[in-house]
Amino acid sequence: MLPSRDSTGRWRKSALMSLAQTVGELLVEPLFLLLFAAGVVYLLIGESTDAAVLLASAAVAAGIYVVQCYRTDRVLDRLRELSAPRAMVLRNGDPVRVATAELVSGDCMILSEGDRVAADALLIECDGLCVDESLLTGESAAVMKTPMSTANSMSYADMAPHEARNHCVYAGTMVVAGHGLATITALGRHTEFGRISAAVADIDSGDTPLRRDTARLATRFGAMAIVLCLVLMLILGFQQRDWYAAVLAGLTLAMAILPQEFPLVITVFLALAAWRIAQAGVLARRNDAIEALGAVNVLCVDKTGTLTENRMQLTAMTDIQGTVLFPLPDQSAMREGLAHIIAMGAAASNPQAVDPMDRACLQALSLLPPEGRTPLHTGMLLKRYPMQSGFAAVGYVWKTWESENACLLAVKGAPETVLAKCDLPATERSQWLRRIDTLANSGLRVLALASARLSNNSKLPAHLRDVRLEMVALLGFQDPLRREVPYALNECRRAGIRVIMITGDYPGTARQIARDAGLVELTDSPVVMNGNELEQLDEAELQRMLGEVHAVARVAPLQKLRIVNALLSTHVVVGMTGDGVNDAPALKAATIGIAMGKRGSDVAREAAGMVLVNDDFASIVIAIRAGRRMFENLRHALQYVVAVHVPIIGLAALPLIPGLPSILMPVHVMFFEFVIDPACSVVFEAEPAAHDLMEQAPRRLDESVLSWPNMLHAVIDGSIALAGVLASLTLLRAIDTDDTELRAAIFAVMVCTNLALIFAQRGHYALGRANKKAHSRGPQNWALWIVTTVALTAMGVALTLPSAREIFHFAPLSTSALAISIAMIGLTIVMLITKHRLFRRAVKAE
Q1: With DSSP H G I counted as helix, E B as strand and the rest as coil, what are the percentages for the chain, rounded to 5?
Q2: Most C-beta atoms within 10 A of its C-beta, which of 79, 252, 376, 815?
Q3: Each residue of 495-534: pLDDT tens digit?
Q4: What is the mean pLDDT of the segment spanning 173-181?
Q5: DSSP type of residue 454
Q6: Can you give the pLDDT at residue 37?
Q7: Which residues are registered as beta bridge partners of 126?
Q8: Euclidean distance between CA atoms 756 and 674, whole angstroms
Q9: What's the rounded Cα separation, in Å, for the pair 798 and 745?
């Protein structure tokens, strides 16, 4: 089967290629090699049954490994598909955002600033469209494009490649300015981009801090396994002169020591954590972002669309007479000229409204009764003045009925920009400024509305800067808070996470929104800093101010990078949301960059470690909870792995003591691994979060998942289990139990203590601030009960079924051996419970 491309145009491995790679990795797995070596040794000494069992076990282990890798790859592939670039196209005349896989040749693609072009396409309409084609050509200068319909009368097929290039856009290139419409001509591998093969947003499979941490632990255990294995083989070989038995004992000890579960646990936990947060609407593009979730202590979030619904409503308006709320309470307000204000607001809006404020103005006009909708113009649009850098206002010139050459210019924009173009007496200007403050302090976004009468006899002004305006009114818009935001912000406050709101709105608006959203207590006043103040601060002052502020208003996109760098320099873990092209540096610099999925540009999504599919702040909080849960459960899983290996190592090393029999064989260790692997990778991953998880302070980003105190407590638990096993061994030998019955009894004790260690680690209270409070588990962990049931059933089969006893080298248990085993299992469980209660009391006493 040949490799194919996925919906992103990226080469995707076929099932056969993926299987071959997995098998190649399996052939160098230590456990697999040890099982194979032990099977070969059994064949050499003539024990064909034992050899067959071990080789079959190796096959089962290989099957489990392949299945787990396949499931993990499937999860990651589905996440890649979810995070693949999307395109805006026209379907049935309506703009629709679709996945790249759903594009077809002939689709009409809508291009906007910041978009990554999804396919090769021919331009049919554009306005100031500039495209960065450096990915294809290596030239850094952006290319100005012209539409085919106006540039050349030839058909596209008849044009030379160099001529067509000026009228085409290509997959993988970036729109850096302007907008346009283009008809798709090529997709996937047929595009220019596909011919040179490209990479898209991928979940990073490289090493992460967590992987490096566990790799160090695995390396230390591996070195210890090699040394002790060789020592045991040499001692037994020279003592007993039975080198086959010595090699088997050494291999058994190596299998007991090697923590081959570590890489499995990390892979499964990270993959499933990525999938779980994807269900909450957050796509993880990099593993290090998942790991850092539980350590975030500062979140910088956009207001619009993240804390709010990104759905503007005209809420209030004011002329020089006073403020009136909208919708209007009665028809009497029509006589006060407010209908004229609403009509002027609609005239200052794009008739094909996309901007939220334009939509709100047009909706307000539609809510007026028919007799109140006095038209101000004929409907013929003569000129549009778009917003320009340094001049935050837009204008529309309409033909009126007053005379053949009469025109109406309606202007809407930032109050400071519009007021500056109006000739007003000082007292009247002061009145307008007070009304701006009144509206803004009510949590409204304020726009000024102005007009001018122009003549069409002469050339219309080239720019709004050249026109003197007449002030008409102020419009107050409100973007409603998302319903779940106050609760989510309260969760952050309980979890020790500071939230700083970043907005381009007026400071008074930011202050009111911060209060309504719950960024501060009701009795407190939010501390708000604006972009101009930020620009005047040096780095030390900015770091100090950012430790106090709740919101930063009037922020330019490039100032976000400075905010992030200032916070990082104070050694905090920063999560940053963004959506625009200019947000990309800040998203890349933050510990976790979080791009908006609905309104975010492709540049922002590629720079970020996570993508917020629904642009909802509450989803970020859910993801942080999932990240904390993953780290806590991963710590418990690794502690269990360490604890359970202690009694296995102790039994495997028994032959070093003269006069003691060899209890464990490779087949026994293999059975334990079949219990350990699903326990550490599935049972602990499925463990519900502690009820107080979001009341704990964020962990340090460099905190080891298995610190020395955690390791010590795991070793103590394992030592208690080993003590119970050795006590059983001593008592059983005291009643002259033969070796095969002794092996069966110790096996039963080992399986039960193994399960006891799983339960012990579920309720483990590790040292450290984050684990001092009691864990109250709510939902049941069904994976735990399934693993427990299967393990006990398999143990019962091994102890009672004659053919299974032969494979495991067991003899039937006598009544006395069974009684001793049950008593020692009970005593071990009591000792584990006592140890954890004592530790819990010690922690509470601190």
Answers
A1: 55, 15, 30
A2: 252
A3: 999 999 988 777 877 888 888 888 877 556 778 898 888 8
A4: 80
A5: E
A6: 64
A7: 180
A8: 16
A9: 11
Q: What was the pLDDT predicted at 807?
A: 83
- pTM (2 decimals)? 0.67
> What residue type is assigned to position 272 of the chain?
L
User: Both tokens of residue 255?
Assistant: 């299998």
Q: Distance (Å, rounded) from C-alpha 328 to C-alpha 316?
A: 9
Any residues with CB less than 8 A from the CB of 398 and at least 6 apart, and which? 347, 376, 377, 378, 379, 380, 381, 382, 407, 408, 410
For residue 354, the SS3 value is: coil
DSSP states along 470-492: EEEEEEEEE-PBPTTHHHHHHHH
Measured between alpha carbons, how far is 330 from 352 in angstroms, rounded to an integer? 29
Q: Position of tokens 């061994």? A: 729
Residues 6+ positions from 717 with CB-CB distance below 8 Å: 639, 643, 646, 757, 760, 761, 832, 835
pLDDT at 782: 82
* DSSP 8-state code for residue 303: I
Mind listing the pLDDT tens digit for each residue in 580-612? 656 777 888 898 989 887 766 666 777 788 888
Shortest CA distance to 286 belongs to which of 202, 213, 198? 202
The CA radius of gyration of the chain, in Å to the nearest whole number, is 35
More confidently predicted of 54 and 721 = 721
- Size (the chain), residues: 846
Predicted local distance difference test score (pLDDT) of residue 585: 79
Q: How far is CA 431 from the centre of its chain?
A: 48
**What integer pLDDT is reported at residue 187 of this predicted model?**
85
Q: Where are the alpha helices (DSSP H) in 241-319?
A: 243-257, 261-279, 287-292
Strand order in the sheet with 574-578: 282-284, 610-612, 592-596, 574-578, 298-302, 498-502, 551-553, 528-530
Tell me whether the omega of the peptide bond preceding residue 327 falls within 30 degrees of 0, making it cis: yes
Q: Is 598 exposed, middle or buried (0-12, 13-18, 19+ CB in 10 A)?
A: middle
- Return the number of other C-beta atoms located less than 10 Å from residue 817's C-beta: 23
User: Helix or strand or coil: residue 147?
Assistant: coil
Reduced to 3 states (helix: H, G, I; strand: E, B; else coil), residue 662 is coil
Q: Return d(Cα 474, Cα 426) in angstroms, integer.
A: 18
